[in-house]
Each structure stands twice: as C-alpha cells, then as structure tokens.
Specification:
This protein has one domain: DD-peptidase/beta-lactamase superfamily (Beta-lactamase, 3-Layer(aba) Sandwich), CATH 3.40.710. Helix content is about 35%, strand content about 15%. The chain has eleven helices and twelve strands. It has an eight-stranded antiparallel sheet with strand order 2-1-12-11-10-9-8-7, with helices on both faces. Strands 3-6 form a two-stranded antiparallel ribbon. A hairpin with a 2-residue loop joins strand 1 and strand 2. The two termini are about 15 Å apart.
Length: about 350
C-alpha cells in the first residue's frame, strides 16, 4: 500500500479511536490530539471540553499536564548540568542535607531516572489526609518531602526502577539550592521563556486560567463531577503541577525530545541511559526510562516523551529524536492501567495511533 494511503488510514483510525474513547460509558467527555509533522499541524477532537457550555476542546485551551511536569523539571535540571551549575553526580547530601541522612547518597541522576529508592509521598496516609481535609490549601514543596522524610529508602539507590513522585520534588528543590532562585523562576527562564510558552505556568493554587478544558470524573450510575479545580496544583509542584495547552505542550515535546533545551554531553548521556521501565501511566509500545524522559518503541517507530495523569486529566506527549514529528493526546478524565483500566486501554490505542500518524505521514 502506498505510504500516503496508509497514512490516511491511520489518521482516520486516530479520529475513530478518539470518538470511541469518549463514546464509551464511563469514558472522558472529550479528547484532543495534536499531530505535527515538520511545520504542518493537524488537530483531532472528539466530545466536549466543557459539559455546561457544550464547547469542544480547542488546542489553545488550558489543561493540567500531570506527571508530564517531570519532563519540565528534568529539562531545567539538565540545562543546569550543561552549564555546570549542577552535576548528575550531585547528591541530596550536598544540596539538601536537612532531609533524612540515610538519603544523602542519592544522586541527581537517580532522582531523574526513578532509581533513587526514595519513597513516594503521594502514597503517604498523612499526605492523603492533608489533601482530603484541605484540598485547596497546599503545603510548601519541602513539606511534601516531609511526609516521607522519616522513611527508609525502598531499595539501594541505583539498583532498580520504581516511579516516585517525591524524586521530582527533590529535583526542584536541588535546582533552588544550586541557583538560589525559586524553581518557578528557573522554569520560566529555561523553558517557558525560551520556547515562548506564554500560556503555560506552574500555579500553586487551585484556579485554572481561562479558557480551560474542564476535567471530570465520570462513573456510570453516579453524578459526573467537575474536578478541574478540586485541589491545588501546589500539592504536585515540580512533579505534576504545570498547566499548559495542547499546542504549547506539543512545542515543548519537540524541543525537549529534539535537544533544543540542552545538547552536547548532557544530551548524549540522556539518550544513552535508558533502562526497562513503564511510564505512569504506560505509554505506547515498549517503554524504557532515561533521565526525565521515556522512550516509546512502537510498531511505527520510536519517540521520546512522557505521560501524565492527575485529577480530571490524562496526558501523553512525545516527539522524534530530531524534534520534527510530535504528538500530544489529552483526555479530560483521570485514568490509568489500574483505575478505569478498560477506558485507559482505549486512550492507549489513541496514543499509539497518534504516534503512527506522526511517523507515517
């Protein structure tokens, strides 16, 4: 079959997959995919971004990106490594000695690759209790670590992979300690500013910038709830608090995977350090984890990026290693392979078709 015809079939399949995702009982009210090849961008939408106004999703609407924020904190840290402000071998003992002394040997590289062994603060009963009692009043970032700072390492640093949200909080705090600046300032200067991402931000509160894609919880037999502003972004901070738009997230994916934010030895190291490990939620194809980046090897080819899941939203972004082909897929309900797994399987299918649409065009 000619490549052009095959690409057309894949593109039609992507639209059908998004339609099926939102039509499934318990599925998200809406979904959007941005596929860019070179300078040509195509947007696919299904369903609604706002159930009250009946407005469809738009690529310029704001949304929470969830754990894709970990790629942003990675971009900031690795750009500082390139400039010699930080080193991949820097330890928590050097920059953050006031936390658990048993963690002092954990390296920046291990925190970026989820091989540190540091326990996940989001699994802490105390953290869950705090969020449940005061959902819109976050604690400062260092206090997020405090929820697990008295705990032992789950395993010796560097011995294996295990996803932990605490690690990227620590990365953000190391950035602050090394630069003397707030993490949000470094994020603005090294990523948002450089890429012209004027609609992206790292808020601490619960309010979303207007206009925004509303995020929902849809459970058959129960009232659908709008979770867009249910909790403060500060509870996720450098690990998941960023707000962006589909178009700007696509811009970041291209720059980050394509090496536009740092290059040279740091870029070479990032691309040479992948080990087996699924992103959370898993991305398409065979997943492996590097320094603040996942590699997704699909039947259509290989892309680099990250997934995200947070109250009201599920995200996927990826691009080729040269940054010329990229995808973003967003749905306005939180789901993963353990929660609403049957629905997420349809999201995963859309993710893979989006990659194929980018690589086969």
């Amino acid at each position: 079959m000619p490549q052009k015809a095959a690409a057309s079939i894949v593109q039609s399949g992507l639209q059908s997959a998004l339609d099926e995702l939102v039509a499934t009982p318990g599925g998200p009210p809406g979904a959007i995919a941005v596929v860019q090849v070179g300078n040509r961008t195509q947007v696919y939408t299904a369903g609604l971004g706002d159930l009250n106004s009946r407005r469809r999703m738009r690529p310029t609407d704001h949304m929470r990106v969830g754990s894709i924020a970990k790629a942003f904190s990675g971009a900031v840290a690795l750009s500082l490594v390139e400039r010699g402000v930080l080193s991949l071998d820097d330890t928590l003992g050097k920059w953050l000695p006031d936390f658990n002394p048993d963690w002092k040997g954990v390296k920046l590289s291990q925190a970026l690759q989820h091989t540190s062994g540091v326990p996940d603060f989001t699994m802490s009963k105390a953290f869950k209790s705090r969020v449940g009692e005061f959902p819109r009043k976050p604690v400062p970032p260092s206090q997020l670590v405090d929820f697990v700072a008295g705990g032992d390492l789950v395993f010796p640093p560097g011995s294996r992979y295990q996803y932990s949200n605490t690690e990227n909080i620590l990365v953000g705090l190391m950035v602050e300690a090394a630069t003397g600046h707030a993490y949000v300032r470094e994020l603005g200067a090294r990523v948002f500013g450089r890429l012209g991402m004027r609609e992206s931000s790292l808020p601490s509160g619960y309010l979303m910038p207007r206009p925004f894609i509303h995020g929902y919880d849809v459970t058959p037999g129960e009232p659908t709830t709008d979770d867009s502003e249910i909790a403060a972004a500060g509870y996720a901070w450098a690990s998941g608090g960023i707000v962006s738009t589909p178009l700007e997230l696509n811009r970041f994916a291209r720059a980050y995977a394509g090496g536009a934010l740092f290059d040279g030895a740091v870029r070479d190291t990032q691309l040479a350090t992948f080990i087996p490990g699924d992103s959370d939620p898993p991305g398409p194809g065979t997943n492996s984890v590097g320094l603040a980046m996942f590699r997704y090897e699909t039947d259509c080819g290989t892309v680099y990026g990250h997934t995200g899941s947070i109250f009201g939203y599920t995200q996927f972004m990826a691009a080729t290693a040269d940054g010329t082909r990229s995808v973003v897929v967003s749905a306005n309900q939180q789901m993963n392979e353990n929660d609403k797994a049957d629905i997420y399987a349809k999201m995963a299918q859309a993710n893979e078709l989006a990659v194929c649409a980018a690589l086969m065009d």
